[in-house]
Specification:
The chain is an alpha+beta fold. The protein has four helices and six strands, in the order βαββαββαβα. Strands 1, 2, 3, 4, 5 and 6 form a six-stranded mixed sheet that branches. Helix 1 packs across helix 2. The N and C termini lie far apart (30 Å).
Length: 137
């Protein structure tokens, strides 16, 4: 099945030094708490949880404005806590195969997330245009 969605991939920034500074037990709890907080925000903003993998969260949103709001709130959440986050956001066609997602749009979101520094999010210009279209601007 293929659908058009906003893809938000958020990741804990600098988790390796976090484990070195705080030790395995404390750092894993800090990462867990941060991931849970990201999931709660995405859910509250209408995101559809896809998966977590280690210290990242992948969610889909039916419309771009909710994804943008969620991304901002997740970055703010990371700023307020003891763990920093970064993320990538893109809008496009997503292919579902069982419980896995495929397609160029998913790959773009992952690349954006991987290139960005902590406490930042990278949004493709396309999603800003999509947001205006959906919100009537």
């Amino acid at each position: 099945m293929s659908v058009d969605r906003a893809i938000l991939l958020c990741d804990v920034s600098g988790s390796t030094p976090l484990y070195e500074q705080h030790g395995d037990e404390r750092a894993s709890q800090m990462v867990h708490d941060c991931v849970e907080g990201m999931l709660e925000i995405a859910n509250r903003r209408g995101g559809e949880f896809v998966r977590t993998k280690g210290d990242d969260v992948l969610c889909l949103f039916e419309n771009a404005d909710r994804a943008l709001i969620a991304a901002k709130e997740i970055l703010d959440y990371g700023t307020a806590g003891s763990v920093s986050v970064h993320g990538g956001l893109h809008y496009g066609t997503v292919l579902w195969r069982g419980t896995e997602l495929f397609g160029g749009a998913v790959n773009v979101a992952a690349r954006l997330s991987g290139r960005i520094q902590r406490q930042r999010s990278f949004v493709k210009r396309h999603i800003c245009r999509k947001d205006r279209t959906q919100s009537g601007l």
